[in-house]
Amino acid sequence: MKSLALLALILAAAGCGESGNDLGASYDLSVLGSGFGADDGRVLYFAVTRTDTGTIVATDTTTVRAGGFELSFSSLLDQGVTYEADYYVDVNGNGRCDAPPTDHVWREAVPAAQSNATLQVSGATGYDGSACTAF
Ligand SMILES: [Ca+2]
Question: What is the distance in A from the centroid of ligand 1 to the CA of 104?
Fold first, then answer.
């Protein structure tokens, strides 16, 4: 039993860089949101998609507090690869992403990274209903 637990630990550690190919380095992505005061107290759903393959590589949820939010994803970004960040607030509370203005929906490009990256997003950015495809 003890060795099984150890094996599970080793597998978990190896899974940290699970992006499939390790040809390049992977970098952390931090997301800093501001200007989301209209959605204070609401849950925000976030997804990161690789633009070259259309694969969703990470999802997370958080709650908007004091007009902002923070998320971080470790070792997410492959070197030189571009991504899209899609996120929405489920304003009508039906558990689905609905086209704006029913829900508040945004999309931002994540430029190709050469180091750990911070993406600053603003709730003042215009809505983009096409981001609902990630959810
Ligand atoms: Ca909705």
Answer: 9
Q: How far is residue 75's CA from residue 98's CA, in Å, rounded to a whole number?
A: 30
DSSP helix/strand/coil, 41: coil
Q: Which CATH number fits domain 24-134: 1.10.150.130, 1.10.3720.10, 2.60.40.10, 3.10.450.50?
A: 2.60.40.10
Alpha helices in the chain (DSSP H): 2-14
Distance 128 CA to ligand 1 centre (A): 14
CA of 96 to the centre of ligand 1 (A): 4
Parse the chain into domains and list their residue ranges. Answer: 24-134
Tell me: the pLDDT tens digits for 61-106? 999 999 999 999 999 999 999 999 999 999 999 999 999 999 999 9
